[in-house]
Every structure is written in C-alpha cells, then in structure tokens.
TrEMBL record:
Keywords: Aminotransferase, Pyridoxal phosphate, Transferase. GO terms for molecular function: transaminase activity. It comes from the Bacteria. This is Aminotransferase class V-fold PLP-dependent enzyme. Pfam families: Aminotran_5. Residues 25-400 form the Aminotransferase class V domain.
Length: 408
C-alpha cells in the first residue's frame, strides 16, 4: 500500500500556510511541522483548561484527565506501561536529570561507555560524571564514515561497566544502529542500555518492549508535537534512582524525574500526535488492532515512502564528484538525514544559494561535535544537512535536486 500523501499533508497546517508556499522544508531533524491535532489540543487546553489540575471542579478535573490520557496513549503506542513514560522540557534536560538521578547507583571507579556518534544531549551530561568519580570509556566512530563498530564496542566492556549510551540514529550521519544487538551485549555484560532516539523517532515510533532498552529518549517537537522531551525508563530501574523532585515526591515515579513539575498544556497536547497516527492508520487500513501494532503498520508505510525519496536523493549526490557525503552513500539502514560538504565552493555560499531556491535546510554542527571531531571535520562551519520525513513529496525532492545543481 502506498502512502496517501495528499491526506498526510492535509493534516499539517504548514502546507496550507501562505507564507510557506513554495518553500520545501528539509530541516526536519531540527524540528518537524506540528500536525493540526496537536495544535488544536494545545489551543483547546489554553482556552478551556489552563488551570491547576486535578481539583474537583470541571475545568481542573478534565485537565488532569487530558494529561493522563497522553501518558496512557503514548505508552500504548510504544508498547510499554504508562508508569514508564515521563515528559520533560527537552531530551537534553531529561538526560541531565537522569545523570544526576543515576550517579548514586554507582561506586567511584565504575565505568560507562558513551558513543562519539551522539548529539551532545546524550553525551555531555554523562561525560560530566567523570568529575564525580565515574570513568568514561569513549566509543569512537570510524574516522572515514562516522559509523560505530560492534568490534570496538566489545573491547570497551570491563567488569565495572554500568551503562552504554548511544544513538538509535545519528542526527548528522543518519545511519541506523543495531539497537537490539547493542542492548543485548550491554545486558550480557551487566550494563544498562540508554538510547537517544531523537534522530530515529520522527521516522516511526519503536516498539520499546521489543528493543528491550532500559532507557529510551526522543523529542516530541521532532515528532509532529510540542517542545517536550519524552523518556521511557523501565519501572524497576527508576525505583533505584535518586529522587530529583521535592522530598515528598519520593516513591512517586511520575514526579521523581521532573524537578520543575510537568507542563500541563503541552503534555495534554502530546496526545494529538497519537490522534494523527490514528487518523493515518484509519485512512489506510480497515483492521482494528492494538496501538503498537498500528504503529508498526504505519512505520512500514513511512519507511517505504521515505526510502524511495532517500534513494533518489542519494543517487543524485553519488553522481557528483564535487561534494562529500558524510556517512554511508547507501540508503540501507539509513534514515533520511543526509549531510554533505561541497568540495569546490565555499560551504556558506552554497548554503546561501540553496536558501535562494526556497529550500529550508540546515548548516552547522547540530550539536554533533564529537562525530565531526572524530572525522576531522571542522565544527564551524560544519556541514549542510538535508533531513525529511514522510510528509515530504517527490516534487520537493526534485526542487532540492534542482537547487543543488545550481548551488554546486
């Protein structure tokens, strides 16, 4: 079954916004367009329910129910328990809180493995634990292609390894890592698996029970929602962590990892993402199944559409000898996140020319300092990044290729 792109794009206000007409959006790894279901829920909450929640008057009671609904539905789509879902202001801040909550679980001299392929969100806070008695073992990327090696990972484990932190998919290289294999290896060595899913989740929510990760994190503003970070933490693990909220919140696992308290409206609006997924599923399929099974069906639809566009783009880029593709030149095990460096023209001039062709894309390091450093690519000016999701059209890819031909 092919993705009905007309239906998909009708769910996003941006595609009927006059000020965006003619512009092709290729900076989705930095933040996606929100679907109208999220916008509607956010507007309704601010209009009707912007009061303190869970008091016994209608506006407050409904506000609490709307928030609880987001926890429950998000858990159902990710195939976990709602007690294991946590919302925070961003993935970076969520990991900062996690690092502080988990440090008391370990002894001085214990070790953690942190990949050098990560966005700094899943790198910086863990590395700072070196100042607090934890040894950091660096899992470097291949200097030529930026990929992570399982052979190199196996060399890093010791009898004191407590955790492995790595991305499901790099936000600059695009390669999809073998999450289950890495997680299994970590568990066999008595270590936790902590996965940054920020780059991967926009292309389909994973089945977290199947992945068996201990912690999985991603950003809702990159998955068609509001500016929140979502983290999944196994229930038995959070009970071992140190409370990061008010002293009287000890034992209340929903509160222990949100020091400043929840953002009521944005959490309530998060359910709009799942309204969107339901609408897309119901438009394409007739069989009623569980939410995480719906997600699998949608992921297949999204992947098929994205991969066709990705192969078309990569075929063009491979045909050029005046640029360097960062990472693999194949679409296999690759998300539609493609970074490149021009060889013959100034990168800032190329980028400026692309903007003139009404192409919205990124230039910089995207907080992926460490993979660029490993590959000896200057973090300033960095790379040009092209990133898209399932609402991207073939016509927009054609517009991109035309712009690239002119800019290069």
């Amino acid at each position: 079954m092919a993705l009905d792109l007309t239906f998909i794009r009708s769910q996003f206000p941006a595609f009927s916004e006059p000020t965006l007409e003619g512009w092709a959006f290729f900076e989705n790894a930095g933040g996606s367009y929100p679907c109208h279901q999220v916008v509607d829920r956010l507007n309704n909450f601010y209009t009707k329910n912007k009061v303190q929640v869970n008091y016994p008057y209608p506006a407050s009671t409904l506000a609490g129910k709307l928030m609880n609904n987001s926890y429950k539905r998000m858990a159902d789509f990710l195939n976990v328990d709602e007690s294991e879902i946590h919302f925070g202001p961003s993935t970076t801040q969520n990991i900062y809180v996690l690092a502080n909550a988990m440090r008391p679980m370990w002894e001085n001299g214990d070790e953690i493995i942190v990949s050098c392929q990560d966005h700094e969100a899943n790198a910086g806070a863990w590395r700072r634990l070196a100042e607090r008695g934890i040894k950091i073992n660096e899992w470097h990327v291949d200097p030529q292609n930026g990929l992570l090696s399982m052979v190199e990972l196996k060399k890093l484990f010791t009898n004191r390894t407590k955790m492995v932190a790595f991305p499901h998919c790099s936000n600059i290289i695009g390669q999809i890592n073998p999450v289950k294999e890495i997680t299994d290896l970590a568990h066999k060595n008595g270590a936790l698996s902590v996965i940054d899913g920020v780059g991967f989740a926009p292309h389909g929510f994973p089945d977290l029970k199947d992945l068996n990760a201990d912690i999985y994190l991603f950003s809702l503003y990159k998955t068609f929602g509001t500016h929140l970070g979502l983290m999944y933490v196994k229930d038995e693990l959070i009970k071992k962590m140190e409370n990061q909220s008010h002293f009287f919140k000890v034992g209340n696992t929903r509160s222990m990892l949100t020091p400043a308290g929840p953002d009521h409206a944005q959490i309530a609006a998060a359910s709009g993402i799942l309204d969107y997924f339901d609408a897309v599923y119901n438009h394409h399929f007739k069989i009623e199944i569980k939410p995480f099974q719906k997600m699998k069906a949608l992921n297949d639809l999204f992947f098929s559409h994205e991969n066709k566009l990705l192969e078309k783009l990569l075929a063009f880029l491979r045909s050029r000898d005046d640029l360097r593709i960062i990472g693999s030149e194949s679409s296999e095990n690759r998300a539609p996140i493609v970074s490149f460096i021009p060889k013959n023209r100034d990168i800032k001039k190329v980028y400026s020319d692309l903007i003139d062709h009404k192409l919205m894309l990124g230039l910089g390091n995207f907080y992926a300092f460490r993979p660029l450093m490993d590959m000896q690519i200057p973090t300033d000016p960095g790379v040009i990044r092209i990133s898209f999701v399932h609402y991207t059209s073939n016509e927009e890819i054609e517009q991109l290729i035309k712009g690239l031909k002119a800019a290069l």
